[in-house]
Design a protein that fits this description.
Blueprint lengths: L10 H80 L2 H10 L37 H16 L1
């Protein structure tokens, strides 16, 4: 600024002072607004991180509960199998036969009523040839379907 020689302000000096005051006010308002924006962004980021942590904790709790339920289910299955074994071992076949003959009026089968069958598995299988009469063997989907049909025919 210029050195004043007169007591009255010059108009130029007054305008310069007003411009400086306005610039200072604008800078402080911008700083306040940018500080508020940074605070809102920080709160938003903290909220996002907190929600992610909360969801992760909730998922882990659900996994733990599911694993506990699976463990309990497996224990119940093994206990059920143990009970079935106990029941089957306590059944006396002679007592079952007595009840069947005495109370239910069942009879022993005669020798002519008994038919023995061979239940041993065979060591051979039947393979159907499905490639005869088929001109288009280059189609992958068709060959896959034929293969599946061959396995299905073999299993039946």
């Amino acid at each position: 600024m210029k050195k004043r020689t007169k007591l009255a302000y010059q108009i130029e000096e007054h305008d310069e002072v007003e411009n400086l005051v306005n610039e200072i006010k604008k800078g402080s308002v911008k700083k306040k607004k940018s500080g508020m924006f940074a605070f809102i962004c920080a709160v938003y980021i903290v909220a996002i991180v907190a929600s992610l942590l909360f969801k992760t904790v909730e998922i882990n709790e659900q996994k733990i509960a599911l694993n506990d339920m699976k463990t309990e289910y497996n224990e119940l299955c093994s206990y059920n199998k143990k009970l079935e074994v106990d029941i089957n071992s306590k059944i006396d076949l002679r007592k079952v036969e007595e009840i069947a003959i005495a109370q239910l009026d069942m009879n022993q089968p005669k020798k002519s009523q008994i038919v023995y069958i061979n239940t041993e598995p065979k060591d051979y299988g039947i393979v159907f040839d499905t490639s005869e009469g088929k001109a288009d063997n280059s189609n992958i989907v068709a060959s896959l379907i034929r293969t599946i049909n061959g396995y299905y025919a073999y299993s039946n």
